[in-house]
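User: Please fill in residues for this 160-position structure.
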C-alpha cells in the first residue's frame, strides 16, 4: 500500500520504496531459479524481466561494498566491460576507475557501440543467471570476447 515514489532509505541507487519492491522481486526470482536448478530443471525467465534484473544488479552493485567488501576490488584505470542481452535492447558499459566503477545503461540505443576491453553477450535470462553466479561464462550460452583476466577479476569480486 506504500507509494512506490515515497522516499525511503535503501542501500542502492534508488532511495524510494520502489527500490525494495524491485530488489525483493529479483531476490525471490533467484531463489526460484535455485530451486529449479536443484531439481535439474532449466529455469525459464521472461526476457524483459531478466533484462531488468541485469540492470538492477549492475546499477546497485557499486553500492553493495558495505556488505560485499570484494566489490571494492572493482577498480581500475579506465578498463571497460560490456554486458549485452542478445534478445532485448539491454546493454551496459562498466567503467573501472581508480575510485571505483560506474555503470552506463545503453537500453534502446541506436548509436554504434564503442569497443570494450571485455564483452559478454547472451540471452537476458542467461546473463542474469551469470550475474548471480548460477551459470559459468564458459557455457555455450555466452559469447565472450576480450580480456579474460579482466572478466575473471570482475566475476571474482562482483557477487552480493
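Assistant: Residues filled in for all 160 positions:
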Amino acid at each position: 500500500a506504500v507509494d512506490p515514489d515515497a522516499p525511503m532509505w535503501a542501500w542502492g541507487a534508488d532511495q524510494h520504496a520502489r527500490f525494495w519492491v524491485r530488489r525483493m522481486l529479483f531476490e525471490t526470482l533467484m531463489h526460484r531459479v535455485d530451486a529449479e536448478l536443484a531439481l535439474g530443471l532449466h529455469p525459464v525467465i521472461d526476457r524483459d524481466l531478466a533484462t531488468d534484473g541485469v540492470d538492477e544488479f549492475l546499477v546497485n552493485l557499486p553500492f553493495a561494498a558495505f556488505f560485499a567488501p570484494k566489490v571494492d576490488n572493482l577498480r581500475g584505470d579506465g578498463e571497460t566491460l560490456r554486458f549485452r542481452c542478445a534478445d532485448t535492447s539491454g546493454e551496459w558499459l562498466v567503467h573501472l576507475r581508480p575510485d571505483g566503477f560506474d555503470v552506463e545503461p545503453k537500453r534502446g540505443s541506436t548509436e554504434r557501440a564503442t569497443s570494450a576491453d571485455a564483452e559478454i553477450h547472451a540471452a537476458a535470462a542467461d546473463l542474469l543467471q551469470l550475474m548471480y553466479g548460477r551459470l559459468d561464462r564458459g557455457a555455450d550460452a555466452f559469447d565472450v570476447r576480450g580480456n579474460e583476466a579482466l572478466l575473471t577479476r570482475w566475476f571474482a569480486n562482483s557477487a552480493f
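For context: The chain has a mean pLDDT of 94.
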